[in-house]
Design brief:
Structural class: alpha+beta
Number of helices: 13
Strand content: 25-35%
Low-confidence stretches: none
Amino acid sequence: MKSTTPVLIVGSGAAGSMLALELARFGIDFRCVDRLPEPSRYSRAVTVHARTLEMLERIDASLIDRFIKRGVHSPGYVMHFVDGVGARSEVRPGLDFTQLSSSRYPMLLLHSQDETEAHLRSFLKEAYGRIAEWGVTCTQVVQEADGVLATLQHADGREEQVHCQYLVAADGGNSRIRQQLNWKKDGTDYAGTVLQNLDVYLHDFPDRREWVHYCMGPGHFVMVVQLPGGYFRLLMSQPADKADATEVPQKVFSDILAQHFDGIRMGDTVWHSRWGSRIHLAHSYRQGNVFLAGDAAHVHSTAGGQGMNCCMQDAYNLGWKLAYVLQGLAPAALLDTYESERKPIGSQVIAAASTIHELFMAGRNSDPAALLALQISGKLQALVGQVSGLDYHYRSQGDNATGLQAGDRMPDLQLAQGRLYELSRHTQFTLLLVSHGEASGQQLAQLAALVQGYSRCLQLLVLDLAPAQYLQGADARLYLIRPDGYLALQVPLSEVDSLEQWCRANLERK
């Protein structure tokens, strides 16, 4: 069998499903295959962060509604401590997500990964009639002058040769494609750490169930989270020398929880898993026409729940860029920015997860004093901004300017015409003109001609007055917002020539 497709996505997890949805939304044909016979019913990720929720809203209002209605709205983390003599204390809140004032989603949404992926796939099918192909393994990848030749092995034994312009490996931390292409990565294990998940029904849990509870003491850490469906996710991190694989998991968890809470009874178990935590970051995110996305590119501690979110954000960044190049709306060089933007984010996510891991999950901390000191210093709230995804940006290295700059996430402004995220829910760049009533006729005529010349790529939105909290300044100003909601450029209207130069360099005229 032989076939062709513009894009072949290998892996239909969080990254692959998001990329498939974005390509469909932009009108790009693709195939998405996964070697598993069916979607997994279990998952390690349980948190959808604010930036990911913003992405889902920008895609479609009905999609974000599915998540908001199903997920548990959590204000943040409570840190429970017990010392060597059994004395309890707590910091409430320890990590406070209600302070994320620049987003409509100042919270954690507790939502299991299998359901998150299922929502993406069901929306893809309902809105665009596209589905993933299960039981299909990509066994070989060969780079060619005009694209990639992939060999697919179907569950019924059929072998298929697929020629694609671009292949995206979203096939997980043990990516077979990354290994086959001898893709280099840096990595390490969290030495001596063993992790376990236990999904279980808990009876008579005495604390507020919407919070994420971190329980710490000498030699132990357990996270307690209630998920949609009524059962709890328990995550344990133990030093390897104290983790006995022969012990019954329910008893180990129960004994630790009894140090922090009274009266909890363990109910039926839904799922149990055990693994070692590790870190890796690929040296590059691209080889020729093959890209890495999600866990294939980066793996880190589960601390902070950033993994699934970072995977989906990789795909959100790559999706519109592939679409623009394939549709002739942008030069091929746009694809180089995927690695230059997302690899630094992968590195920052690893650093933030490692910080939380060392602070809490390493099982060495049974004293709230250090946590309170970090809270007072503001470092914990800065960490919340990162973990939420809101503070990650694509600015040029060394750009520390204040105010909105190119590469920043554009906040969801409340405008006279409506909210910015609603008004920019399309697949083009949004050109926001804040006029302050002073724009000259010549400047506006030049701007109108520019928008007309790039009408396939640009939509113009005009404001008479800027929301003062973000778009400050007395001059008329232009804000060019990318399809993924990040700021590409901001200049005074008097410098419309700069906008024109940017468009000539980065977009194709109609």
